[in-house]
Structure formats: C-alpha cells, structure tokens
Fold Calpain catalytic domain-containing protein.
Amino acid sequence: MFHFHFWRFGEWVDVVIDDRLPTVNNKLIYCHSNETNELWCALVEKAYSKLYGCYEALDGGNTADALVDFTGGVSEPIDLSEGHFATDAERRNDLFERVLKVHNRGGLISCSIKATSASDMEARLACGLVKGHGTL
C-alpha cells in the first residue's frame, strides 16, 4: 500500500494505491523509467490518475496545474507567443532574469510546446522535445 498527498482545492488529500500497475506483455503501459526496477513514477501516476478518476483524465493535462497539485505551491504560466519575446530584447532579458531568480531560489520550472492541431500532437522536434508534452 502506498500513500500520496496531493494539494486539491486548498487542502492536502491522501490517495492510497496498491502496487498493481497496468502492463501489457509485462511492460508498463504508461509512465516508466529506463530502469526496469524503478517504479516510483508509475506509482505517482497511478495515484494521480486515481485522484482524477482514471488514467485517461491525465491525457492533455497542464504541467503548471500538476506542479500545484504535487507541491501545494503557486504557478505562474507565461505564454511566450503572447509576450512579444521574439521581437523585444528588453522583455526577453526581463523574462530571463525572472526565470533565473526562480531557479536560484530552487523553484520548479517547466515548459511545453503547444500542439496546434490533432495531427501536430506528439510531433517530435529535432531537439528531442515532443509537442503537447510538458518538460521539467
């Protein structure tokens, strides 16, 4: 039995799960590590899916919302396409300073690339990032 705590609607919620994880041909279906005996990420995912009702409810989620649920902290989403960061060097520098301050204080920073269509979802870019997925 495993206990996980998630921050939901202003309070910590205890979620209890067992160690039965969804597999096909003895391999984890969803979240998994490169190490075969490392199961913590699959267990966290199972507890989080239980909190939301099912695994399918996690599909297309928001990284910032998940970080709030995991930590009880506060998130500040920044949409780079709306901030004129590509054309305004001063705004870019201000953003860099803000991100650096968060980093220096030990804050969690994530990013994602929006998928603009269903066919664009899961597209792997040359740099290794995948559209529609968040990265910490």
